[in-house]
Specification:
Strand order of the largest sheet: 1-2
Membrane topology: Multi-pass membrane protein
Keywords: Cell inner membrane, Cell membrane, Membrane, Transmembrane, Transmembrane helix, Transport
Helix content: over 70%
Structural class: mainly alpha
Order of helices and strands: HHHHHHHHHEEHHHHHHHHHHHH
Subunit structure: The complex comprises the extracytoplasmic solute receptor protein and the two transmembrane proteins.
Subcellular location: Cell inner membrane
Protein name: TRAP transporter large permease protein
Shape: globular
Number of helices: 21
Mean pLDDT: 83
Low-confidence stretches: none
Radius of gyration: 22 Å
Distance between the termini: 39 Å
């Protein structure tokens, strides 16, 4: 009964147009003050202790690194490198867009930054080459979502924060440790590469079917020159992933190093950004970080309410009594997350749904790392479908196309993403093979 009241109140507040963060906070306060005896001091204490996690510092640092790179000409150099590699194939510029999005996502961890940085450069070039606007928009809108999956994904950091410290037991009754940021980052690499390949294949197939333009084949000298020009940006991938895997950095320390490195290459190596531009970038990063941290703070309160009302445990007991197995639960999870993506931002979905679904998943025997990647892929799909798919709105601003037209444009790639979601859901090794091979988990 309490679960129905809590979610009914949350939904009612969101339907008024109130921001997710404020809706979460008001839901918690209203329920606690009217239906429980929880003292106000515990709420205030939870607001402060909820964000006293070292891992949370990774979020503003990765956002800052992404802002430096987005304004520092890195995307333009990566597009040039990708074009020399695949530009002579069918749909060459479209394939270059997929490759560029994958590379840029792997150094920023932000879906929106990837769409803006890559899309604003390559979409005009595609139109100039004679590609249909819908084709280019479909490629960039969906490929930009790779930022949610590739490390350093901010959403994977949020999943780790949302589930950290939870006391959960497996089907055998033994305690199960939560997924660390490092494990999730490494686990996201192979699914990210697989989805990049599938999106590229969809792009190539449609370009071949409709005979879209191809570029002249680049010489090895041109490829080497383009690689040397963008290598400083690519080295950030090595810095973050290599540093975490080797144990030199924690994920938070890697985020801080990434921010400093991005500043140095943008201002002093590539010199695309002048020192007077730095304060503006810092203000933009601080604004984005404050927004996310405010959502996290209220989501922590919401998780506290869920735990105090024993809602995850009640759900687990109900599913067990109904005879739900892993397959039925995972299908239900996908449906819930995709439905939530119709009206909620991915960050809010992760912070609200992960603490509820995670204990049930572990109780049924789902690996925590696999479950984190499953949620990330769902969030990728949610970024690309209406009515609140954030990538659609960002791409709409770049292409000047309406949301309805963009929705039609992304369907071939969106269907590919849905097929990949089913594969990730029922083939755990796609997520777990690399961390296990590197000895990061049993």
């Amino acid at each position: 009964m309490s679960a129905l009241i809590i979610f009914g109140l949350l939904l009612a507040l969101m339907l008024t147009g109130m921001p997710i963060s404020i809706s979460l906070g008001l839901t918690v306060l209203t329920f606690l003050f009217t239906m429980t005896d929880v003292p106000i001091t515990s709420v205030a204490l939870k607001l402060f202790t909820g964000i006293e996690k070292f891992e949370i510092m990774a979020i503003p640092f990765f956002i800052l690194a992404g802002n430096f790179l987005m304004h520092g000409g890195v995307a333009r150099r990566m597009i040039r490198f990708a074009t020399t590699l695949v530009g002579h194939w069918y749909g060459g510029l479209g394939l270059a867009g997929v490759v560029s999005c994958a590379l840029f996502a792997a150094i920023t961890g932000s879906s929106v930054a990837t769409v803006v940085a890559v899309g604003s450069i390559i979409l005009p070039a595609m139109l100039k080459q004679g590609y249909p606007a819908r084709f280019g928009a479909g490629v960039i809108t969906t490929s930009g979502a790779l930022g949610i999956l590739f490390p350093p994904s901010i959403n994977l950091v949020m999943f780790s924060i949302a589930t950290a410290g939870m006391s959960v037991t497996g089907p055998d009754g033994n305690a199960v440790s939560t997924a660390s940021v490092g494990q999730l980052f490494i686990a996201g690499v192979l699914p990210g590469l697989c989805l990049s390949f599938l999106l590229g294949m969809t792009t190539w197939f449609r370009a071949r079917k409709f005979d879209y333009p191809r570029l002249p084949k680049a010489s090895w000298g041109e490829r080497w020159s383009a690689f040397r020009d963008c290598v400083w940006g690519l080295l950030l991938i090595v810095l973050v992933i290599g540093g975490i895997y080797s144990g030199v950095f924690t994920p938070t320390e890697a985020a801080a190093m990434a921010a400093v490195y991005a500043f140095v290459i943008a201002v002093f190596v590539y010199k695309d950004m002048k020192l007077p531009d730095v304060p503006k970038v810092l203000i933009n990063a601080a604004s984005m970080s404050a927004m996310l941290l405010y959502i996290i703070t209220n989501a922590v309160l919401f998780s506290f309410l869920m735990a105090s009302e024993q809602i995850p445990q009640t759900m687990a007991a109900w599913m067990a009594s109904q005879g739900f197995g892993i397959v039925a639960f995972l299908l239900l999870t996908n449906i819930l997350l995709l439905a939530a993506g119709n009206f909620m931002d991915p960050s809010a979905i992760v912070l609200i749904m992960a603490p509820i679904l995670y204990p049930v998943a572990v109780k049924l025997g789902v690996n925590p790392v696999h479950f984190g990647i499953l949620i990330a892929v769902n969030m990728e799909v949610g970024m690309c479908h209406p009515p609140v798919g954030l990538n659609l709105y960002v791409a709409s601003g770049i292409t000047k196309m309406g949301i309805t037209e963009l929705t039609v444009a992304v369907w071939p790639w969106l269907l590919t993403m849905l097929g990949f979601l089913l594969a990730v859901t029922f083939i755990p090794e796609i997520s777990l093979w690399l961390p296990r091979m590197l000895g990061m988990m049993n």
